[in-house]
Design a protein that fits this description.
Strand 1 (about 105-110) and strand 2 (about 115-120) form a beta hairpin. This protein has about 180 residues and is an alpha+beta fold. The protein has two helices and six strands, in the order H-H-E-E-E-E-E-E. The protein is elongated. The chain has a domain at about 95-170: Roll (SH3 type barrels), CATH 2.30.30.830. It has helices at about 1-15, 25-35; strands at about 105-110, 115-120, 125-130, 140-145, 150-155, 160-170. About 15% of the residues lie in helices and about 25% in strands.
């Protein structure tokens, strides 16, 4: 029993002897000496920052450089007619104060008075019939189907004439 204790003590002593000081910590000692050599309370100055220079993007209204340029063939462009023009003497209707894009057809009604379309937009649902006007471009309703309202708009052609442009307001599907 004494022999096994003696072997255990000698073995533990040799293991602990290996934990003594050796040359492995020379870099740690050098760093600690460097830190101790610095005067107390010295703080490194803040790095110099470059001021931010703002940039205003000026080409937002121009064509994207990643899209090909649009070629407009002036000869094949549709010309307006002097015969087609809006009736400026008629009384404007309420729905002509809004863009036609805000309207969506939501249904139809029919009675003895005829067929009516229900269009949503401009703050509510409105009942319109053939001959009514809507949209800012003198849009006149020419037909009402179960799934769409057909409108003819009168738009300027840019050269003093007017063009008739067909538009369709489709029935809004349930969502």
């Amino acid at each position: 029993m004494k022999c096994s204790r003696l072997i255990t003590v000698l073995l533990a002593g040799s293991l602990l002897g290996g934990c003594g000081e050796s040359g492995d910590f020379a870099d740690l000692r050098a760093y600690m000496d460097e830190v101790r050599a610095k005067p107390k309370g010295s703080i490194e100055p803040l790095p110099k920052f470059q001021p931010y220079e703002s940039f205003t993007y000026m080409a937002a209204s121009m064509r994207s450089p990643f899209q090909p340029p649009v070629k407009v063939d002036m000869a094949s462009r549709e010309k307006g007619s002097k015969d087609v023009k809006p009736d400026e003497s008629r009384v404007r209707q309420y729905l002509e104060d809004f863009n036609i894009e805000v309207f969506q057809m939501v249904g139809t009604l029919s009675n003895q008075g005829g067929v009516f379309a229900l269009v949503s937009g401009a703050g509510g649902v409105h009942r319109v019939k053939v001959g009514d006007y809507l949209g800012r471009n003198h849009g006149r309703i020419v037909s009402i189907e179960e799934s769409s309202v057909e409108v003819i708009e009168i738009v300027p052609d840019g050269e003093g004439g007017w063009l008739e442009r067909p538009r369709s307001i489709s029935l809004k599907e349930r969502s």
